[in-house]
Structures are given as structure tokens and as C-alpha cells.
Amino acid sequence: MFFGLLLLGQTPPPVSISQIDALVKQRDVAALQQLLVKQTGENPFSLLKTGGAYAAGSLGWSTKEIVSPSGRNRYVVISTPIISEDAGELLFQVAPSGKLQYIPESDALGVRLDKHSFFVRFNPAKGEAELHDHLRAHWDGKANREFFFRLSPTFKVRAITGIGGGEIPFAQGGGIVLLEPRPGAPLDFLIDYSGTVHKPGFQREISPREATLSASVWYPMIGRQPSTYDIGLEIPKSWTALAQGEQVSDTPSGSNHVMRFRMKVPVVWFGASAGPYRTVVSKIGGREYATMSQTMTPDDMRVQNELNAEVVEFYSKRFAPYPFRRWTADDSWQFANGVGALEAYSFATYGGGLPGQDAHEPAHTWWGGLINNDYLTSLWNESFANYSMSFFARHRPVGNDAERMAAHVFPAVPLPGIEDAPLSRSGVGIGPAAPSLGYGKGAMVLQLLENEIGSDMITRAMHEWLRTNPPRHVGSWEDFERVVNRVTGKNLSWFFDQWVRRKGLPNFNLADVKWEAGRLSGRLAFTGDRYRIHSELRIEFSDGVSKTVSVEAGDDGIFSTACEQRPAAITVDPNGFIPRSNAESDPRTKLTRFLYGHPYYLDPAHPDTLAWARFGKKLEKLPDDLSGAVIIGTPDNVPAMAPLCQAAGFTVAGDNLTYKGTTIDLRHAGALAVVDLPNGKHCVIGLGKTRLSPDTGNSRLILFDNYGRLLRADTEQIREGNLTYKFP
């Protein structure tokens, strides 16, 4: 009857919490939308279906009611435990009609957040934390009678006290807390609360083994505004704590001790952890690098510090100075039982895999830290972090420049959901497509922009954005576009229109190819929206010689270039930069296709050869048919490797391997190569001893140093598919 009245346009009775909760548990988004005051446009209840970007709602949704302490207003909260950086609590005010008025999380209701000061005491045995927050804020204009802050619903507020004395009336429903401050009083409160950490993808985060607040919303958030903070963590004497910013003190407190940190850079996402870590600190280039772990050896931790220093110094020189005295890698037992890794701007938390070189999480110091992102509109900072990771791999000053650049082109792969929304409107609320767009398409688009304006120009633009972004301003794709236009002196709105503001990917094939009078031309035949395409063009001649040039296809899709000799074949985008909805699987021969998961044979006399390369089933003897096998050893001990090394271009003499004039010592370096066998089959050979495995990228052959860094590589260009034309 209730919904019949709604459909007839009659005034319904007051909304029943039990009715709403039943629909929420059924995830009946259409019926819930009928309860809204405004039933057009985006439906906030769609989050119940999409599950956010990181499985919001996987622990169940519940419906709570909040009534203002004064009785003035009534609110409905749709609640679920969430991981940080995702969407969660949905807030609605109940209108006089009984319908629901949605209040977006971005609406701070006129409150500007200034600073937090926390004191945290863990109770590992109970899996709980007791927290106190001195929150300072101010009204941005006219004061309201009430406002809200948010935190995970696993935390419960016990009391809120004004700094001048007196309790502040409040009410909590799920993770939403409503306050009614006294008229004219400053927004200066002491908030006492406690609870546990429980969120999707993780199990128990506070335990006798480790206490991890990172990756949860454990602190009061107002409109996802950035803020600075101080924090004190009281922990057992045998434990060490880590929080963002700089450590300022470490003092005894009975049987415990209190470690205090100050975060001077305003950020949206806060993190802190504590546990019985061992810590190794290295001084490199005037800066401290630390690794904290319960399981790593001191030597491995020192290696991790060296790897982190290379990344942080690279970004610091190209983007903006690193703003802290120390960078720390936290090897977390909790994260090993949860999701992979998480940035915290002065440190990153990992769930294993160390030592290893990660250039993504450190990049967030600049993209998400110095320029903030709230994840509500887009995951642009994940785009920049993934692009920075690729940029580091391609431009680091180690190895052969051209071969490194070719091997580490960011793969333009159409990920699931990548066409569901434009980059400019791809916040966590759209669901699992948000990471595909943020981590995937956005990084591909920045790589295309680098091709368009050049490597030096894009780093100048990134530097300028960091230099001019107002403090506490949440960044956006539009902000970066304005900076790019200013730095280049060009209007690149067409680029951002087609790649950032337009939904989907281009769909095109190669057509109308011809060569005449020393001119080569062709057309990109689009299905659907047309794009301006700046691309590489591989031109191959009958004698096997090839060259790569740049071409521009305008709105008509036509491109041309000088070519004195008749080609045998051409390929548009031979290195796979351009994402397309009709892209075929990459036909190139790559180590990633033939190394991982394949059976391997290991020289029994040298079981420590490439000790990390154990990805498939071990072969007890070398098979007669080598197809699909990974053979690890040296020609001296595995004679069958001699012709394979020769085919790869490797000359091996004792502990030395030489490839195209580069010689490596196989006691501290390594080599991998895909070797062609008869009938289109392949095997992989591996030689050497290295501490860390390499990132082989797109290569089919790689020489790498002890830390897995690329020294030489061979990467094929694409020569088949619907962007290739072979002349008759």
C-alpha cells in the first residue's frame, strides 16, 4: 500500500526505518529511489548494487536512524564497514513529506576542517582501540545549527566536549555522527570514541601481533576535507609505532611508551600502525630511509631502503621536493592477510613481497598527498601514480635508454569496466569500474599525453601543478588540464575532451593504405566517435629493414608521411600505446607469456641459479621437447642450453655473459630470453644469480643487475592485426 500511494503521487506517511531496511537488505535500488525527494539524476542507492570500488557493502548493509538531540530533524543512515578510499555511509534527511533528501558526503554543511590531535591507546587482547581527538574547525560563512562527521561504524562515540567546557549534544547512527554545537561557540571539540577495525578484504586489524589503523576510516572526516594532524600512540615497550609525517618524541608511560608524530602536510587519508617491528634505517643522499618488519632480515631491510631511495629521489628531482625527513616501508602482517599495499605519503604499508622495488605507492606522496584526492569524483591520483611508476621504469638512469623505453610502455589493455564512465566522472560510487578507469585508462591517457607534448613538457606540467595547487585543494583532471595548457602555451582541450571527458575508447581499423610518388598514406576508419590520433608508424621494407616515424590523424582519420621507398608492410601503433575498444590480444612474443606458470628445469649442480624463478612445476629431467619449458642453468652444466644461448645472442664464458657488447657477471646479474623453436614453438632460458627478480615488461629478452634492474632488452614491435597492412 505504501508504494501504491507513492505511485499515485499522494503524500505518503512518515518513512519507516524497517521498511527502508528491508529494501536495503534486498538491495532494491529502484524501490528505494522512489523514496527520494528528487528522483531524477544519479541514484545514490546505486552504491548498494555497485559495491563501490573496493567491495563496499560486502560485510552487509544496515539502516540506522538519527534524530537531532533537539528533535529538530530526522535522518536516515545506510551503513556498512568500508575500507578507506571507498564509498560507504549514505545520509538522508527525512523531509516533511516523509521522503528522503540525499546529503552527499562532499557536503560539509558549511564546516571547514582545520586540524586533528589524536591520542590512541590499543587493547590488542580485545582487538580494540581507545581514541581521543581534539578536532578544530570553523564555519565557512554562516553557522548552521548542526553538522556531521563520518567514521567507520565499527567505532562508537562516547562523549563530545567543548574545549571551553560542557558536553556537546550529539547522536550517532552507523558511521554518521550529528553534532549540535552551541550557537556562537567555536568548533573546538574533544571527541572520545572507541572500537575496532573491520573492513572488506581484511580480517582482524588489532591483535597481539600487530595493530593497524591504516586502510580504515578511524578518524572523524568532514566532507572528505584534507587536514593536518598530531598523534600520540601508547603501545607496549616492545612495540614500535608508525604514523604519517615526522616522529617528534618517544616517552615512557608506565609499562608502555608513547610515540608522537606530526603530519604537517594536509591529507584526506590518515594511516598509523604499531607492532613488535624491527627497524633498519639507512642514510642515503641526505635523507633517512627505513624499513619496519617482523620477518625480514636486516640485510633485506637495507636493500629495501636502497630501492626506495632510488624511487623517492627520482620523483623528488622531477616533480617536487619530498616533504619529509624519512621514507618508510612497513612490512605488515595484517596486510599480508588483506589487500596488497597502501600509501601514506611518508610511508607505505605492504603485505609482503619485500625486498622489492615499488614506484607506485611512493608516487602518492605527490599524487594524493601534496595534491589531495577524495576519490568521490575520480581516481585521478591512481592514474598519476601508475603513470609515474611507468615513467620511472622508462626514464630511470640505469641500462640502455632506448631498450628500457620500449620494454616499459604502459600496456594499453581494455580492462573490465573501462568504458563505463568518463575519467572525469569516475569516482568510487560507480563501482568496480572506478579502479579500471583510475589505475588503467588514466595512466594510459597520461602516457598518450606524454607522446603528444613530450617527456620534458609533461614533467614540467606535473611540477607546475604541484607548485601552484592551493593548499588543501582537492585536485581534479580539470585542474591538470589548465596547467598543461598554460605550460605548453597550447589549447589541448580537444585531447582532454576525447580522452578524459568522453566515455569509452576509440574503435578503429586501418584502411585505404597506399604508396605513390614517395608518399605513404592511410586512414583510421572509426566506428563511433572519431578521435584525433598521434601515433607511431612502423614502416617495414622488403629487405627486412624497418623504421618508425610519427604521424598525425586528424578528425577525418587520414595520415600521411614521406616514404621514398615502397614499403612491404606498415603498422599503426607498433608499441601498443593507444587503448582501443576493438584491440586484439597482443601478438608479440613476451617473457610474461612464457615464464610464469610454465614448468621449469633447474641445473641440479647450481640450485641457487635465479632462485626466485620457480613459477611452475619442477621438471626432474630435461624433456626431449623443450616447448613451453623454462630452462635455468648454464651451458657448461646443461649442454642443451648452448644452442639456445647462441640463438638468443648470448655468449657465455665462465661467469660472464655478453650480449650486444654488454657483459654481465652471472654471479651478481642475470639474463632471461624467449627462444624460438621449430614449428612456432618457444622455450625460455634463464642464467645468473640475482637477489631480486626483474620487471620484464614487454620484453622477450632482458639482462638485469642484482636488484633486477634492466640493463639490456629486446622488445618486439607489433606486426600483425587490424592496424597492420601488408602490401601485395
UniProtKB/TrEMBL annotation:
Residues 359-499 form the Peptidase M1 membrane alanine aminopeptidase domain. It comes from the Bacteria. GO terms for molecular function: aminopeptidase activity; metallopeptidase activity; zinc ion binding. The keyword Protease applies. SUPFAM superfamilies: Metalloproteases ('zincins'), catalytic domain (SSF55486). InterPro entries: Peptidase_M1_dom (IPR014782), Peptidase_M4/M1_CTD_sf (IPR027268). Keywords: Aminopeptidase, Hydrolase, Protease. This is Peptidase M1 membrane alanine aminopeptidase.
